[in-house]
Prior knowledge:
The complex is a heterodimer. Chain A is mainly α. Chain A has three domains: 13-95, Helix Hairpins; 114-367, no CATH class; 372-483, no CATH class. In chain A, 77% of the residues lie in helices and 1% in strands. The longest helix of chain A is centred in the first third of the chain and has 52 residues, at 121-172. The N and C termini of chain A lie far apart (84 Å). Chain B has one domain (16-180): P-loop containing nucleotide triphosphate hydrolases (Rossmann fold, 3-Layer(aba) Sandwich), CATH 3.40.50. In chain B, strands 2-3-1-4-5-7 form a six-stranded mixed β-sheet, with helices on both faces. In chain B, a hairpin with a 2-residue loop joins strand 2 (56-62) and strand 3. The longest helix of chain B is centred in the middle third of the chain and has 13 residues, at 83-95. The two termini of chain B are 21 Å apart. Chains A and B meet through helix 2, helix 5, strand 1, helix 10 and helix 16 of A and helix 3, helix 4, helix 5, strand 6 and helix 6 of B.
Amino acid sequence: xxxxxxPTPTYPPAIEDAVAQICDLLRGDYALSxxxxxxxxxxxxxxxxxxxxxxxxxxxxxRIRALKTALEKADQTPLAWQIEYQxxxxxxxxxxxxxxxxxPPRPQTLADWIGWLCMNPWTGFPIxxxxxxxxxxxxxxxxxxxxxxxxxxxKLFGTYINPFVENIVRSVVPWxxxxxxxxxxxxxxxxxxTYAIALILPIVTFFFLVFxxxxxxxxxxxxxxxxxxxxxxxxxxxxAVIPIVLGxxxxxxxxxxxxxxxxxxxxxxxxxxxxxxxxxxxxLGVVLALxxxxxxxxxxxxxxxxxxxxATGWLAAQVLPxxxxxxxxEIPPMRLPSLSNVLLKTLARLQWYFLEVLxxxxxxxxxxxxxxxxGLFNLALRALNPLTQLLDLPPQTGVAFLFGFFRRDYxxxxxxxxxxxxxxxxxxxxxxxxxxxxxxPCVAQFLITIKERGWKTALAMxxxxxxxxxxxxxxxxxxxxxxxxxxG
Amino acid sequence: xxxxxxxxxxxxxxxxxRPTVLIVGNPNVGKSVLxxxxxxxxxxxxxxxxxxxxxxxxxxRYRGQEFVIIxxxxxxxLVPITEEERVARRILLSDRPDLVLHVIDAKNLAxxxxxTVQLIETGVPVVVVxxxxxxxERAGLTIQVDALAQQLGVPVLPTxxxxxxxxxxxxxxxxxxxxxxxxxxxxxx
Lengths: 488, 189
C-alpha cells in the first residue's frame, strides 16, 4: 500500500476543513489521533473538551471554539449528526459491497422460532412455568436442596466431620463459653461453616448452573422482554428480572446483584421485593416440605405471595418518587451454550459468592452466641409471643420464626416437630409458611441490605417485612376462619 | 515546540513492558469468549448487558512471549452514551493499547462498521475480528474478507470464537504485530 487516501470516510468539506485546522492547532499529547480528537471536539464530547483544556493554552481553545461556532452557524444540522450520517452511509455502502447472499436466507431457523416463542406472552408464560418447574423446582429444589444436601450435610458433616471437629475443640479449649462459640449449636463452625459449605454451597451450585445455562442460551434476555411490561407497573423494567430470578436461589446474593439496576429507586424497590416476597431456595425447601401434603395449601401460599409481590411493587412505585426507566436491550440469538463456559462461569460465581457471603454467616453465628449469652434471645422470644397468639398459632412457632431467621432448616425442623406432635393443623402450616416467606429471609440478607442500601433503608425494610408478614398472616388466618376453609 | 516527540510519540511503552491488546466491540459479539480463548483465564461471559461492566485483564503466552489482553465492556460508538461505553473508551484513552481487536458480529456488519471507522480514525492499530461466521453462513450470506480488509486498510480475520475456529490466526497476528524485537509497528503512518 503506497500513499492511498485514508480508508475512512470523508466528512462534508466544511467539517474536514475545520478538522484539519484543529489538527494543526493541537499541541498536547493525546492517546488518540488529532483527527479523532478534533472530531470529538466538534461533537461536543465533554470528557475530550476537559482533556484538551488541560493540555492546550487558552488561545488555542478559543480558536477551536470559534471554528466550531462558525460551523454550527453555517449549517443548522447538528455536527454530531452530520458526522454520524456520513459514517453510516459509508459503512452501509462498504457492507453492501462485500456482502453477498449465497442463497435466499432461511426465513426462520429453529432457534429463531424458539426465541420468538419465549417472548410471545401466550407461549412465553407456559415456557416460563416449565423452566421454573424443571430448572428450579426439580433440579435445584428437589435434587440439589434435597438429595445432595442430605448426603453432604447429614452424612458427611453430621456423621463424620462435625463430631470430629467437636471432639478436638472440646478437648483443646477448656472454657465452655468459647466451646459454644466454636462448636455449640450455633457455633462458628457448626452454624457458620457447616451451613455455608454443606447446605448453601450445594444449593447455590445447582442454582448457578441453571442460571448460567439460561443466560448462555439467550433465554434470560427474552424473559426480561417478556415481563418488562408487567414490571413497568411495579416501577421496574425488564432488567430487574436478573436479581429477581437470582433471588429464588439466594436473596442475599440477589441483593448484591441489584447493582445492575440503573437508579436507586429501582434498587430499593427490588431489594424490598426480595426481602419480602421472593423465597430463596432454602425457604422454598422448607415451604415445599411443610405443604407438600396439602395441594390446596401450596396453591393458596403461592397465590398469597404473588399477590403481596404485586401489591408491594405497585405501592412502592406509587410512593417512591421517580419513574420507571426505559429498557433497551439487544436480543442475542438463541444459542447452544458451551459447556466449559457454563462450568467456568458457575465456578467464578461460586468463588465470588463465597467471598461475599461466607463472612456474613460467620458474623451471624457470633451474633447468636452473643444473643444466647446475654439472654437477648429469650427476650425476643417473649416479644414474639403476642404475635403468634394473634395468628392463633401455638407459641412454639415463635421459636421457629426467630431461629429460622438465623438458620432456616432449624426453623423447619421445629415446625416438623410441632406438626408431628399434632400441634399444627393444615391451616396453621399454611399461615406459618406465608409468614416465614414474607419475613426477612435470613440474617445474612439483612446484613447485606445494610451494606448495600444503608442503615435507614435496611431498618425500614425490616420493619415493613415484619409488619407485612404478621399482618398478612393475621388477615389470612381470619379469612380462612370466616370462610371455613380447611386446608388439610 | 516538541514536534519531534509529537511524531515519535508512539503508543509504545518502554522496551520491557508487555505489549497490550484491547478487545472492543458491541455487546454480545463474543468479546469475552475470545478473551477467554486467548488468555485461558475466565471472565464472566454473558448475554445480558450489565454483567460485563467489570473489565477483565489476562495474560496471553504465545511462542515464549507475553501479551496483556484487556476485555472491555460493550460499546457501540466512540461517543459514549452508557456507563459501559464510557468505561470502554476510558480504557482506550488511559491504557494506550498497542493493538485493538474489534470483534464484529459478521451478521451485523453494516451496523458495526461505524465503530470500526472510528477506531481506525484514532490511529491505534486495529485488527477486525469477524466473528460468528457460522451464523452468517446459516443466514445465507458470505462476506468477501479480503475485499473488506483492503477497503478498510486493516487486517480482517474471520472466526467462530465459540468453537475456537480462527483463533490461532488471531494469536499469530498479535505475535507478528507486537512481539519484540520492535517490529514496524508505526508503518501505518
